[in-house]
Design the sequence.
């Protein structure tokens, strides 16, 4: 069976790696998003999946619209029609519409235990919510938002100090193995239950901001961990000035001046609605990330 892979992110690139080393399911075509400007210089940068496909020597396409006739014809030329090929979708980042959606079977690798955390940021939202377990689901892609039937799912524990980086690494490995199992064993699909549906909304600027007046230290620690290392939480120092927070630790029983940064025994502390958040690794405006001790020695407490 011919395989087409659609994905964009680092997570998707890891799934592509797993398929590429399988004997029967190495993709013949990879489709990803166009290069985008990023960074201070706004230079064009290729998505992680584009870079990995080039390294693997797999044919690559980066259409502006995956649903246009040219792309559909390209997919059909590689994978054929329904029953002849399969498309694997993982963190693609664009809506796949009819008629492409029905022109061949599409399997989606989704890093959550569906129906919990449908949507764009399931790993981050699971950590933010304090979930004790999450996992990976292999589902059939349909027109709904991650609402298609599931053929395989497996859970993993969320460790108390997991960051996005550590948890996503385990989920990538699990997702690759589950996907190969699904392709080899062709298990039956079961419709998702509507009870327990939650949505993992895209991470916006407001989600990054630590609000100590309205959240506990435990809740803010989860935000820091959920956004590390790829997005980053931040604390407002003043108008249009932010302190990046890359690592932090909640102390539920310790109190500090509310909603303020303070220093105690060389530690950088943030008083919260309940408890104290110790900032362990921070990044001053325009600077590099550093441990709290180095920050205090070089910058002191904000005025």
Sequence:
């Amino acid at each position: 069976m011919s395989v087409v892979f659609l994905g964009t992110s680092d997570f998707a690139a890891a799934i592509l790696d797993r398929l590429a080393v399988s004997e029967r399911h190495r993709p013949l075509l990879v489709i990803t998003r166009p290069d985008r400007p990023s960074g201070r210089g706004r230079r064009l940068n290729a998505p992680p999946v584009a870079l990995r496909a080039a390294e693997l020597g797999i044919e690559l396409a980066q259409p502006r619209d995956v649903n246009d006739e040219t792309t559909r014809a390209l997919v059909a030329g590689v994978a054929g029609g329904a029953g002849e090929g399969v498309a694997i979708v993982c963190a693609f980042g664009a809506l796949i519409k009819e008629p492409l959606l029905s022109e061949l079977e599409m399997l989606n690798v989704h890093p959550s235990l569906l129906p919990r955390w449908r949507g764009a940021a399931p790993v981050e939202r699971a950590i933010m919510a304090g979930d004790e377990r999450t996992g990976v689901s292999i589902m059939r892609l349909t027109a709904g938002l991650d609402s298609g039937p599931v053929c395989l799912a497996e859970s993993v524990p969320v460790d108390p100090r997991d960051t996005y980086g550590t948890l996503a690494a385990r989920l990538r490995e699990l997702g690759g193995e589950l996907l190969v199992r699904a392709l080899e064993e062709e298990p039956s699909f079961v419709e998702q239950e509507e009870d327990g549906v939650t949505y993992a909304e895209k991470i916006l600027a407001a989600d990054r901001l630590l609000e100590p007046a309205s959240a506990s230290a435990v809740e803010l620690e989860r935000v820091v961990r959920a956004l590390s290392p790829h997005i980053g939480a931040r604390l407002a120092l003043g108008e249009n000035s932010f302190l990046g927070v890359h690592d932090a630790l909640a102390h539920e029983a310790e109190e500090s001046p509310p909603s303020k940064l303070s220093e105690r025994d060389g530690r950088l502390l943030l008083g919260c609605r309940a408890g104290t958040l110790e900032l362990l690794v921070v990044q001053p405006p325009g600077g590099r990330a550093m441990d709290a001790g180095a920050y205090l020695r070089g910058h002191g407490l904000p005025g």
The first strand starts at residue 2 and ends at 7. Residues 25 and 247 are 39 Å apart (CA to CA).
